[in-house]
Amino acid sequence: MNEKTVILLICFTMMTDNLSAQDFNRAGNEKYRPQFHFSPETKWMNDPNGMVYYKGTYHLFYQFYPDSTVWGPMHWGHAVSKDLVHWKNLPIALYPDSLGYIFSGSAVVDINNSSGFGKDGKVPMVAIFTHHDIKGEKAGTNDFQYQSLAYSLDSGTTWTKYAGNPVLKNPGIRDFRDPKVMWFEEGKKWIMTLATKDRITFYSSADLKNWTRESEFGNNLGAHGGVWECPDLFPLELNGKKYWVLLVSINPGGPNGGSATQYFTGDFDGKTFKSHSKETKWVDYGTDNYAGVTFSNTGNRKIFIGWMSNWQYAQVVPTISWRSAMTIPRDLRIEQVNDQFYLNSNPVKELNKITNLSFSKENFVINHKLDVSKKIADSKGRFKLDIFFAGTDDFSIRISNERGEELILGYEKAADQYFIDRTNAGESDFEPGFAKKHTAPRISKSSTISLSLIVDHASAEVFIDNGLNVFTDVFFPGSLPGNLKIFTKGKVRVNKLELSKIESVWPGF
Ligand code: FRU
C-alpha cells in the first residue's frame, strides 16, 4: 500500500466512523453484520492467527487494529470458542512493541516444554509471529521483518513476550513473514514454514528459539502473480497413507482477481517438500477466502479458517463500525481424482448445532424453475441449501431480495465450469473490480453434482462436489436476501433438496 492510499483510507475511515455513532446502537443489529460468522465487535480485522485447540477450547487470534476500520499497527485480537460456532471475545493478546507491529503467525502447545517457558508443571502455549519494524520499512531497509515468540502459562489467556526476541533474524528478504510452526514427530523437531518473497523457506528447531534453515520451495511451481504469505504445512491421511499439504496465500494473483490461497500436495521428509504435481490448485475460487490456515493440536482433524475478504477491496467495503469476518470453519480432507490429489473443504459438523431443517424433498424433477422462497421466508437472510442433482446438467441458483438485487451461482456444462456472479448483487461502487462473475473449472469427474450453499446476509459459501470446488464471496445486498429460486434449461432430476435456517450467534437475535 502506498502513502496516498493510506491518506485516502484514513479520510474514508473518519467519515464512516462518524456514521457509526449516529446510525447504529448494537453491533449485532448493524447492516451487513454476519450473524453466525466470527467478526470483530468493532474496527479492523484481517488474517486468522495462532489458531490452537487446547483443553476443550478453540483459540482464534487475529490481525487486529483496535483504533480504526482500516489496516494499521497490528495487534493480535483474541476470541475463544468451545464449538467453533459461538465465539467469545477476550482482551487483546499481543500489542505492538519496540520491535514492531505484531504480524501473522501461529501458536503451538509445547507439551514437552522444549522451549523451557513452562514453570511449575504448567504447559506453555507458544506463539510464533512476525515482528514488523515499521521504522525500518520506512527507512528503506530490507530486514524489517523477523520472527519472535510469546508464551502463555494460563492456557492462552495472558501472554508474555520472550526477552530474547527476535528468534529468527532477517537475512535481507523484504517479505519474510507469517511463521506456521508444527511438531514433526518423525524427526522429533519443530518445523517452521515461512513465506519468503514468493517462495517458502522451511526451518527446524529443537526448542522454538534456535532455528536452522532446511530448504526452499516454490521456484517454478505454483502461481507467482504476487507475494506469498501465510503458509501452512500439515499431513492428511487417505486410505491409510500420509499426504502432505502446503497452503500458500498469494496477493495479488488469485484465479478471479486479488488475493487467494493456492495449495500443493506432496511429500515432506523433515527437510524438503516435494510437490506431486505441477498444476496450480486453489483452496477456493471465490474472492473472499484469504490467509487461511489450520488449527494446531487437533490431532488428525484439520480445521481451517480463512479471512473472508480480499486485499483488493477489504479496506473500502461498506460496513460501518467494523471490517470483515472469518469464513465458516472447514474440515479439510484429501481426495484423489484421476492421478491428481485435491483438497476438500466442508463446513465443520458443529455448524449443525445452529442449523434447523425447514424443508426437504426427494427424487423430483425441476422443469425450468423451482421457487423455494417461501421455505426461507422468515430466515432473515441466514440459510443453507443442500441439493443433490442426479446428473450434470446446467443449473443456476438465484438468491435475491425485494430490491431485485441478485446473486447467481451455478454450473455451465459447455465450459464444464462452476460460477458465482455478484454483478448485480448489491452495493459495489466502492471498488470497480467487485461486481464480477467468478468461475472455476469443475474438478470432480462424478456423474452427479452435489452443492451446499451457506448464506449469512452478506456472504455466500458454496461447497460443490463434496468440497472439491469452493466459492466464498461477500456481497452487499441493500435488504436481506429472502428469495431463492433454481433454474434449469429443461427437465433436471434432483435426488434430494434440503433447506435449513441458521440461528444467529449474537445474543438476542
Ligand atoms: C496477509 C498479511 C500477512 C501479514 C499480515 C499483516 O494478509 O499481509 O502477510 O503478516 O497480513 O497484517
Task: Describe this entry's structure for a reader.
The protein has 509 residues and is mainly β. 5% of the residues lie in helices and 49% in strands. The protein has helices at residues 3-23, 134-138; strands at 43-54, 57-65, 75-81, 87-94, 101-109, 125-132, 145-152, 160-161, 176-184, 189-196, 199-205, 212-217, 227-238, 241-251, 260-268, 273-275, 281-282, 290-294, 303-307, 322-323, 330-337, 340-347, 355-371, 382-389, 395-400, 406-412, 417-424, 437-441, 449-456, 459-464, 469-474, 483-502. Strand 7 (145-152) and strand 8 form a beta hairpin. The longest helix has 21 residues, at 3-23. Mean pLDDT is 94; it is low at 1-25. Bound molecules: beta-D-fructofuranose.
